Amino acid sequence: MAKSQNIVHQYYKKQLEDGLRILVKVNPYLFTGTEITLSPQNKTHIRELTFDEHIFKDLEADGFEPCNPLEFNLYLSGLA
Asked: In sequence order, what are the residues at sequence separation of 6 or more whose Cβ sits closer than 8 angstroms to the Cβ of residue 63?
């Protein structure tokens, strides 16, 4: 298994009709990740998640699209 620093994470986002945005980082080897939920009032909720091997099909079925790692990390660090 690859060391954690050598893993290329995959990033996804979804914009909901009510203005809520969800960004997800997935570790494709360990099926773990981070979800950032951004409310229209600029409140941020971050949680660590564990996925199963179907996560990529689930994200696609739920309307998530790939996003830029920089976008995810700006919100994670509070700079966006």
From this structure: 14
